[in-house]
Write a structure and sequence with these properties.
45% of the residues lie in helices and 14% in strands. It has 462 residues and is of the alpha/beta class. Helix 4 links the parallel strand 4 and strand 5.
């Protein structure tokens, strides 16, 4: 049978105790280290980590008070706050035990010990250490994940007047708990703005939870947002907290909220009014304290006028509205964005020193960018990969001429300024170019497959 406990350290100045403990425990532990001199504890802790440390309370300098043991316990916990220490003594009493536990000891045993009890105590302590390790690992993974997620959002790139107006609103709103609705086309950076609001808020040290409402089916909506109890439905094998619970004390970002059906709008409104959620399969209302940020690329006010979106729900979510400009409305930011993405992808694809020619910048500024910043990012990455030039030239962006409006070459769209018509024709052209392959067309447009399918349905594209 494989031994679950990896390593134990035993510190006692009685060699007989050390020998007896080692003989007993080596049947249950892969490696048992013994040491009679407590002054070597700092060195031993620097050398390795231990599942459990057995520490005598009384050494030769003081054989009855337990003060030496308490001192070395403090030294161990100072070096490793998650160290699991079991104190052993022949002079135990309740007061000593309580003091030891207060100072961080995990348990307390008396000499002479009962073998079965000592083994059981060590196994329990090792499980606690394993829990500490798992929590620490999860915290590190969470930190790395958050750093990875936040990396693209460390700065919002741009100096245009339109973007500075957005910055002004963020500065005014971020420190409040006002609900914010972010409006803008796909690819304009709505989640980036939502994260900026969170980072500048009083909730910045708590969770930021992002939910793509457009990707949630009606059947998954309640389970994902409100949670469920074990057995609530076929695949509910464990209790699970919903996104609102997870975002408690933090921020929840509901993206593509304009895609909710009338039934789901009613359920969401009820939760926002009551500030409680009830998990599927439960009758218990769970309160939450969450800052709400929503976003949509739809003309939500027109949707309200047409009866496609509840007016009372709109009032709940748009205490403050932030309108993000399309990239074609902030062309002065294109050089900055292009340089940023070029630096990113030149490093990624080992083409350091790659530059972008002014003629290429002029071309990028003339293009209509139906996919906005996301499309620009994709274009820079594609050109970086394919170009053999030291500087990216206009020819390296030849593919832009085949898939969307150039602002000075919009004959195919008859100079239409109707955004719905522009979007419809762009989608049709992308699907045509990729031979009807929806996945490739969606990637080209900077959309998810679900988002593209919704637009195909919206515009009745066959």
């Amino acid at each position: 049978m494989e031994k679950e406990i990896q390593k134990i350290l035993i510190i006692d100045d009685d060699e007989d105790v050390l020998f007896a403990a080692k003989m007993l425990l080596k049947k249950h532990v892969k490696e048992v280290l013994i040491e009679k001199d407590p002054r070597k504890i700092p060195f031993l802790l620097n050398q390795s980590s231990y599942d459990v440390i057995l520490l005598d309370m009384n050494f030769s300098q003081d054989t009855t008070s337990g003060k030496e043991g308490m001192y070395w316990l403090e030294q161990i916990k100072e070096r490793d706050p998650h160290a699991v220490v079991i104190l052993i003594t022949a002079y135990g009493d309740v007061e000593t035990a309580v003091n030891a536990l207060k100072k961080g000891a995990t348990d307390f045993v008396l000499k002479p010990w009962q073998n079965e009890k000592l083994i059981a105590t060590i196994h329990a302590a090792a499980k606690l250490k394993n829990s500490y390790n798992q929590v620490n690992k999860l915290q590190q993974e969470k930190q790395q994940l958050e750093e990875s997620i936040d990396a693209p959002f460390k700065s919002i790139i741009g100096e245009s007047k339109a973007l500075r107006n957005v910055f002004t609103i963020i500065d005014k709103v971020a420190s409040t708990d006002a609900n914010v609705l972010i409006l803008g086309e796909n690819g304009t950076g709505k989640e980036l703005i939502a994260r900026a609001l969170h980072k500048k808020s009083r909730r910045k040290d708590n969770s930021f939870v992002s939910v793509d409402m457009g990707a949630l089916t009606d059947s998954l909506f309640e389970s994902e947002l409100f949670g469920h109890k074990k057995g609530a439905f076929t695949d509910a094998k464990i209790d699970r907290a919903g996104r609102f619970e997870i975002a408690d004390k933090g921020t929840i970002f509901l993206d593509e909220i304009g895609n909710l059906s009338a039934a789901l709008q009613a359920k969401l409104l009820n939760v926002l009014q009551s500030r409680t959620v009830t998990r599927l399969g439960s009758n218990e209302a769970i309160p939450f304290d969450t800052r709400l940020i929503c976003a949509t690329n739809e003309d939500i006010h027109s949707m309200v006028a047409k009866g496609n979106f509840r007016q009372d729900l709109l009032y709940r979510i748009n205490t403050v509205e932030i309108h993000l400009p399309a990239l074609r409305d902030r062309i002065e930011d294109i050089p900055l964005l292009a340089d940023h993405f070029l630096t990113l992808y030149a490093s990624k694809y080992k083409k350091e020193g790659l530059k972008i020619d002014p003629s290429a910048i002029r071309l990028l500024q003339k293009y209509g960018w139906p996919g906005n910043i996301r499309e620009l990012q994709h274009a820079i990455e594609r050109a970086t990969i394919m170009s053999d030039n030291v500087n990216l030239q206009s020819d390296d962006f030849f593919f832009l001429n085949n898939k969307g409006p150039i602002t000075e070459q919009s004959d195919s769209m008859e100079d239409s300024f109707n955004l719905d018509e522009v979007e419809k024709q762009t989608i049709q052209k992308a699907i045509q170019i990729h031979g009807g392959n929806i996945s490739k067309a969606a990637e080209e447009l900077g959309l998810t497959r679900a988002s593209l399918y919704r637009r195909i349905s919206k515009y009745d594209i066959s």
